[in-house]
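Q: For a teaching handout, I want to show students what a protein-ligand complex looks like in token form. Below are the inputs, and the small molecule is zinc ion. Please produce the holo structure.
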Amino acid sequence: MRCLKTSIVFFLIALPLIGIRAQYDEDWLDREIQTKQRLLQDRRALAKLAASTNAADYDIGYYGFDLHVNVDSQTIAGSVTIRGKSRIDSLNLVELDLASGLNVHAVTGQAVSYQHGNNILQIRLPEALSTGEGFEFTIDYSGSPLTGGFQGFSFGSYNGSPIVSTLSQPYYAYGWFPCKDRPNDKADSVDITLTVPANLEAVANGTLKKVENNSDGTRTYFWQERYPIATYLISLAISEYTSWQDTYVSQDSSLTMPVMYWIYKDMPSPYTTDLALTPSMISFFSSIWGEYPFIKEKYGQAQFSWGGGMEHQTCASMGSFNEMLICHELAHQWWGDMVTCANWKNIWLNEGFARYAEALWREHIDGKTGLEAYMQILNRPQSWQNSSVYITDTTRVSAIFNRIVYDKGAWILHMLRKIAGKENFRAIFLAYRERHSMGAADTEDFQRVCEEVSGLDLDYFFSEWVYGLGQPHYQVSWHRVPASDEHWTVSVRIQQIQTTATYFSMPIELYLQTETGDTIITVWNSRRLQDHEFQINSKPLELIIDPDNYILKSVAYSTVDPDLVTNPTEFELSGAYPNPFNGSTHFRLYLPHDILGQLRVYNLAGQQVALIGDGRFRSGYRTYQWSPTTQASGIYFIRLESDDQFLERKVLYLK
Ligand SMILES: [Zn+2]
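A: Here is the structure, written as tokens, with zinc ion included.
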């Protein structure tokens, strides 16, 4: 889902600089957040009630809608047939979500009685079902469907023409039909039969099987969705539309699929240029994530009265159309619709993915600079310091629809692409699809796939970036010292000075300009204060960390001359003297306050060869000595390690 305050998003095709924020509409997300917050306020009490239903005891298999939409009275009337299966032994009651304001007239089929109140419809089954046994009943109902939050079920108008549409995310499906209003239990298929005034066109999920004209001046549209679909993605859009059709050819050229557009009739449409990009976007995303998931049906885009977009399965709804919104809602067909977040705590698996898809599309069109520029637009930490990407409390209104799930969620994928590597990143999405296609997944499922495909332990990454707060603010200083044989020793100090509790563990690329060329060295940074020392074979002139901006961060560089060695104001482990050495070497430690830690010596293989100190280290200057006894000649590392410090100096021992 995405919300736009205005219909125009400005974008330059060529983006020569990073962070050109003014060219983009920055308001849509604020509006989305506000509307989502209103929605949740409406729904908070209900969510508690709904949680008390026995929804976990059964699986939904099918919804069959037969609804008459009365535009004049702004009511609906008809029936919904539901099929499902028991997940427990002795299921004798099915509890569905349905707004109390809708009137249930009858429940037929496998039902002996029903009760409707507190937004729950309880249907008593004629006999208890065992695990795996099915049920089917039809609920006749009518009334005024709920409007609220984003929209719910809306009766609106454009230039005097009616617009009827739905937007049920996250919990609003109950406002217009009896359902299991959860994202993690998909119906295997849905029939949506809509009877509307004959001058209107009714659009819904899946394939239009037929249209019948009725003698009473109405027309009936028969839509069929034959792919599994989450409750909140079932939708309708009804208006006097101008429609046209495009074609998408599948990646293997074996199938053609209609790409359909429904725009308000008589609307001076500035949208055709952007909408015409749709088939090439489907092709691009299919090329990286596998074939469009609903290839045997369609991809449609229908205009509706809400100011943004909603990724209804096979038929996205949008208030207006522009390139990036079209891109976002289309990407949701894979991430959101084909693989759905198992619950709203994991909403970033929908929104972060669709947001990153926008950046990938920019990369596809504009190249590396387009990607980089777009990602910098999403770097706005002021709006996400107090929440994690994983939403821990879905009753806390301000948290669930924070920008964080969109923007930091996209950044998490961007960083993952760097850490796992481009090929692995691509394979991760294909494997994630293969495992969870047409189902639901949570963050743990995604992490599992990432780790299996990449072979990396990504616990640190997910715990710091998805479950943790904030982002790193690096303070960087560096020194250069001439060594022997035209070599230079470079010492880079990286401090993480963010005030959030978390220190981030990241591989960081250090880009060094030297007199004879440029070089990149990757270091592993995971402490509040950490020194990285290495030798290069040319005089270093300039240092930039993370030159391609793959890390969500801010950076401050020290202005200290890299040739000057300054008095320490922070933890300091001086270079050893003499070095190289034979016999013993000395080094000096400066601590601004006492710490608990260990001072050790390691060999090149990472094995500890000496323990110089263990326990409390007093503040101030202290000089230490290491005198190898049994060690062989070679390179060793002197390390001070504590919970948040990691200082290291390299020494060369020559026997
Ligand atoms: Zn979205």
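A: Two things your students might notice: The chain is about 20% helix and 40% strand. Residues 471-566 form a domain with the Immunoglobulin-like fold (CATH 2.60.40.1840).
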